[in-house]
Write the structure tokens for this entry.
Amino acid sequence: MKKPESQQVLQAISCLLCVFITVRNTIDLSGTEFSGGWLTGPLLSLAEIGILLFVFALAMTFWYPRLAAALGIAASLLALPIHFYFIATVPFSEVFAPGHEFRLQPSAGFHWEKWTVIGVLALASAFFLCVRRVAASFTLPVSREHRRVTAHTFPTLISALLALLLVAVPLFILKLHDQSVEVPQFTVSVKLSGTAAQRLQSINESVIVMASFEELGPMPEEGPGLFRVVDLGTESRPLGKTNVVEFKGARVPLRNWKRLSDKNYSIGIDAVSVGREPDARNILDCPYLTDRIESVKGRTVELSCSLEGESRR
């Protein structure tokens, strides 16, 4: 076999990266409620098919580069939707499932989680390289002296433009459907007991602070003892070294916000420990603090946490 071209090597590397990153972003979803959802289930299935196509494309790159490129294009198109869902869950649902009610309302707006963004960039790069390979197989009727330049610049420009549109157009559409209301800024200061802090450090676990937004009120017109709940979603932020978390830029869905009878909605604040394993058990005992959003606006809320089973003084 002759020495592989540099473009073939790059195409193979991009396919391998896409397999790794897409598997990494979806591996914990198989067999969960996410995989059974009528919207999320098909998204996960498309991503899994995309992973298989990337594997086939990787295997064929050095022998059938054009066929491998075609498979890579299809795989990129199949794996991207679930990443857009991760970035903008509520706007994505507004576009493809209008009127859909979530069992647990996700936080509104855009969420640029590191591995999700890396996944989008990796898929766009693979799409660019694969389109460039396919476009390079077509020749344009140009003069001989311009043929060499055109053979390189035309496929590159076309593939770069298509890759840019592949990412920019969906994000633009999702942004148009990002109908949400910003939550007033507030800060949470977590005070860990000495035992809890030592235990978390010894097992290399971190802390996530969660703020849930909702309206819970009586419904006298429906009968005594009945309550209405408007779920506005939950925001989660990692606790840094300063043990202070700033909730800035959090958003709630406009559709649910309009349903509120009182715009001074309730907020619940809690903190849990998280480990490297997805099924790691929470070892913190933190009181669940509840208040009104106007009461915590611009303030610092203190949350004292101890180790589970540790006596409080």
